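Let's do one together. I've listed all components of the complex below, 919 residues spread over two lines.
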Amino acid sequence: MSVIIKTTINGKKVTASAEPSTSLLEFLRDTLEMKGTKLCCNTGECGACTVIFNGMPINSCVTVAADADGAEITTIEGLADGDNLHAVQQAFIDTGAVQCGYCTPGYIISVKALLDRTTKPTAEDIEEAVSGNICRCTGYAKIIDAIHLAANRIAGRA
Amino acid sequence: MAKAEFTVVGTSPARMGGVERVVGKGVYGIDVMLKDQLHGGILRSQYAHAKIVSIDTSEAKALPGVHAVVTAADAPDVRYGRSYLDRYILARNKVRYMGDPVAAVAAETPALVKQALKKIKVLYAPLPVVIDPETTMKPEAPTLHEDMPLPKNLPEGIKVKNVCGFTSVHVGDPEKAMAEADVVVEEAYETKMIHPQYLEPRMTAAQIEPNGRVTVWANAQAPFPVRQEVAKTLGIPLNNVRVISAELGGGFGGKGSGITSGAAIEPICALLAMKAKRPVMIVLDKAEETISTTIRAGAKLYIKTGVKKDGTIVARTGKVVYDAGAYSGFGTQAGARCTNMLGGWYLMPNCHIDGYVVYTNKQVCGPVRGPGGPQAAFAVESHMDSIAAKLGMDPAEFRVKNLPKAGDKIVGVPKLRDVSLGETIRIAKEKIGWGKVKLEKNQGIGMATGSWIESAGPGGGAVVKINEDGSATVHIGKIDMGTIPGFGIPLIVAEELGIPVSDVTVLNVDTDASPWDAGTVGSRGILVSGTACRLAAIDARTQIFKMAASQLEASPDDLEIKDKQIRVRGTPAKSVSLSTIATAAHNIIGEVIGRGYCDNVALMAEEKAHGSSQPFTTHACIVEVDPDTGNVKILKYVAVHDIGFPIHRAAVEGQIEGAAAMSIGQALCEQVVFDNDGRTMNPSFVDYLMPTINMTPRIETTLVPGYPGAGPYGAKGAGEIACVPPLACIANAIFNATGVRVRKLPLSPENVLRALREAGK
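Okay, and this is what the predicted structure of the assembly comes out as:
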């Protein structure tokens, strides 16, 4: 038995079927072959699979794909405008915050969701927004630099 | 070398492949998709130690949609290993840890794989389990490997068992010197097993080509050793195996040197593909990974040091018991390194340390980031502060008192070329405010130093091809996991060829096309591939100059190359474009192909003659200890490093900050916890605590100039050394804050509070 899921991903309407037990992450990666969203812990602990779901950042690995029916989803593939990178994407490159890059898609999504709410994030705002995103390469210093740079650019301060 | 000499090395441009990664188009191992691929899965032992009585796969094989079920009976009777050939790709006769692979399945869907694995019936006869590395050495302990001999270099008369490595360090006459010391301090330290926890799960895919060759995709740090070991364990000719590397989502040594010290899933997957006659892909589940792949070993470290009243160290004795786990893996090598490093990196005229590497019923030790180093340094550098306290000396002053200088030897290094250790201590003191900063109640300040040897090992090559437009395509045997192929290598090639960094493409490893290399391991990326690429680019440039010289009617020695133009030095009007020459090459030499090689033999000879230019570091921190909960908060953290010339400055800083953060995790919270049956109690990320952004201090990195290394432009490896000091650095700050010495990791609230209570605080 499979369910039909009608959803909007990065502004495009998508209709596909999936098993009821399929996670949103599996739906994106395996059914739709959108590999930008990353698989890691599969328990909602590391943030590598973060997508924006009706405006909120969520862990797609612990979300049932069927819940996406009627929802609006933004994945890492939907951030850039053609060749023009989103400010958060550009800031991650410019500050050297991309080492192996595996946590990067989830990180960028979480930061975008944060900066959609405020372009003047406090240290507490940043901790709250990305404490669920684990990075094993950077020690976080350059990621924090990237968040501030992106915020300043979005707000026209840099 | 003055920085002004260079155009691009020493700067920090955007990493190669950065755009792909931020838009979600980077193709990592787990993003590989093969046409008609089956899903593979591995049945792992449910016992930490047991005889395999029988395996019945008939029900699993009968399931519709299952295409292959394999056990040891389907593979050649060939063992693999690094020091000891002590392991099969699928367990044969015996299992030795809970996670040992016993059988594997290939089926149409992941759900079917799970179902089939459950249908495999394995009858085990459980054996006594040994978890503790000291208990395993005792005569009454169970024997883990019946047919593995004890190390040949074990002294006669020593009654031990389950030992798979022995190292003995002897310098001078430690017994006599210890007897003459004014003060003797003796301590015991313990570190726990941690998992590298790279974010991208281990994967492999295998496909049998129409001509019978086996293609393996692996997110492994060492594709060439993987090729060698797949061929050997499956009895396939080497030239019939091709290993292709995708981008790696982290590795940290956990995806280390071949199957010997990795997950060993590549030959299993190839075996499934051969049986199923379809491509197969295996992706490990994170919890499965934590219990089955290679780890940073725990160690017990005994250390005793004699000093004179003025703080001069006169002798050290000690013992290391290093936990290799169920198989020797990388344990023998890491344990030897740990044993040498327990001798420290200060002047040590008399020393005797014995190191035992032992088998236990746990997962296997791999070459995880600075193998053996953090464990040794936790003991050495905590011990330095204990001695300083006993002498009533400032810990920094005590260290400086015992500094080696150029030409001196330290334990494990016969001759040092120059020594930046004192300089890193001086700068760290300044940056942290040593002796100046006002500490509040429950706050403490600490420091720890470290060193690291760019491990000896085989060289490695590079090929630089110049395309018709003057751009360069680079082949090396090292993979990009946030390391030099994406950062330093394009800069080196651009520098030598006078082309923009964006005109350099460094290809992923394909053993059919890339030059041989031992892998991205041992802080050797910049030394091996950096040197090879620089020489390959110079070789290409020499070919270009030779052809350009005849066009420009000049001597090749008078030419220079800048902005993709070849000019006669001093006569800028006489020039020809690089693309013209690269295209003309088609009719002259075919193509400009530069070749380079890192000559390890020459490097070793150079080191022997002039001494080792190894990196040194000092970290310092300020912590606050909550006396009611034992919680430790790091308020400030500085990392001062001599890594020679930084070729890509941001990449070097990133390596240092990442390595320090990883060890801060080991210091404060990380450990793989076992029950008495050998079961991992915290396999998933829910229970295995790692540093998040909240608990990681901003690591303030300072690079110390002026101490060139053996790498290109005077670079030294930077990937591992920052793992060395943090454990003791934090423990020393806790000691400074509370007067209590915590000698067992992690410095978790539980352990710190217990230590405080035991000290009556």
